[in-house]
Amino acid sequence: MNTIVTEQLTQAGQRIEHESFSIVDREAGPHCYTAEQWPIVRRMIHATADFEFNGLTRFHPDAVCAGVEAILSGRPIVADVEMICVGVSRPRLAHFGVEIHQFISDEDVIAQARATNSTRAVHAMRKARDRGLLDGGIVAVGNAPTALLEVIRLVSEENVRPRLIVGMPVGFVSAAESKAALAEIVHIPWILTEGRKGGSTLVVAALHALLALAEARQKA
Predict the structure, then answer these.
(1) DSSP H or E stretch at residue 22
(2) What pLDDT score was predicted for residue 184?
(3) How many domains does the chain contain in total?
(4) Which family does it belong to (predicted)?
(5) CATH number for position 89
């Protein structure tokens, strides 16, 4: 069997994963996603066993192409929390020369958040901006609505230009509202989950799906 970097490392693992995807395909029923979008939604369902993401997941028309091109170009990924960085396969990232970053636990970020009575997530995204990681990169938000809202502000007020925003914060305070605001952006591609549902697990699943699509494009 030819090695596929973005799949499980063993044939047994690959068989289980493929069978799981087949089950999702059978049980999901009709959907309105394109052939490129569905693998992302399918992997999100696979990661959560929650078929509501068949419908809750929305895509900017250019989202998949933008994400794949960013990965193939080795552009960085900026996450809101460490959980996303831990969850994404390092060997898969290394295959494309992609680095993933998060700054929410940095001492300077914590100090700035305390000094301004703001959140660490806000200042983490500002640090990513200052390091030049947001322009042309992928922003991945799975936990902190304030991180997503700050990215939206940076886009609208400071002309920051991520290649793709994956906006899937989970929760009850500003989660749904932040994603509704993201959906209003027309000039930056995005992938989001509507409403309160979201989480780092979903973001990791979406990123792994994009990595797999990038490898398929690479081998085409």
Answers:
(1) helix 11-28
(2) 97
(3) 1
(4) Belongs to the CobH/CbiC family.
(5) 3.40.50.10230
59 domain residue, yes or no: yes
Gap between the terminal Cα atoms of the chain: 17
Question: Is 188 in contact with 182 (CB distance < 8 Å)?
Answer: no
Q: To which H or E segment does residue 19 belong?
A: helix 11-28
144: left (phi over 0), alpha (psi -120 to 50) or beta: beta
Question: What does the pLDDT look like over 67-113, one tens digit per residue?
Answer: 999 999 999 999 999 999 999 999 999 999 999 999 999 999 999 99
User: Within the chain, which residues score under 50 in pLDDT?
Assistant: 1
Quick one: DSSP state of residue 23?
Answer: H
**Identity of residue 191:** I
pTM: 0.94
The verdict on residue 5 lying in a domain is no
Cα distance between residue 106 and residue 125, in whole Å: 12
Instruction: Kindly list the catalytic residues.
Output: 46
Q: Identity (one letter) of the amino acid at 20?
A: S
Q: Write out the DSSP string of 60-73.
A: -TTHHHHHHHHHHT
Those residues whose C-beta lies under 8 Å from the C-beta of residue 10, and which sit 6 or more positions away, are: none
The Cα–Cα gap between 187 and 62 comes to 9
